[in-house]
């Protein structure tokens, strides 16, 4: 197996006195699709922000293709290869028009204006929203904003895409389009979601954030959708805990 794209090594993080991560470990391979599941408030969104340096870990290491990220300049380099799509698109979109928002990242990376515009228009076309390129961003629907936010990250051609509850608040048409896009991306994906249908449609590896640890998990579809969390004990046998996801 090739070297991991991203490694989280004994990552520890506390917020407001609560330990959300405790020596948590994770490896992500090139092109892999992973889902992080967990109860509200356990730190799933914080995990994504830690990866891109928007939060500072208390201890542990984040390595991208073997390079440890500690200082601010390390994370600036990491964010050229790892893109985060926020849960609330309004936190990500701030330029006058859709095209301006999608071009912002490439221009900030030093791309020539002509190249940034051409690639931004191509990405909007790929996501099926070219018709709104000159629209005022804050007047768009929730589904349109989500696709524009995704375009603003994908246009920079990241190796790893982080998404926080990407299907939240979307109607069926927008949700279907988003899932279709995610299914066909070559990038590695790390998603935080409670959308069990999305998990199954992406055929993603599932990990659960529980008690500060990232634990392997399996989703079984029955009359209700259940998540079986399998954690490895110190001995040879495994401990099995069981949590239900609302379908």
TrEMBL record:
Q: Which InterPro entries match?
A: AAA+_ATPase, ABC_transporter-like_ATP-bd, ABC_transporter-like_CS, ABC_transpr_CbiO/EcfA_su, ECF_ABC_transporter_ATP-bd, P-loop_NTPase
Q: Which SUPFAM superfamilies match?
A: P-loop containing nucleoside triphosphate hydrolases
UniProt keyword list: ATP-binding, Nucleotide-binding, Transport
- GO MF entry, a single one: ATP hydrolysis activity
Short name of one Pfam family: ABC_tran
Q: Could you say which protein family the record assigns here?
A: Belongs to the ABC transporter superfamily.
This chain belongs to which protein, by name?
ABC transporter ATP-binding protein
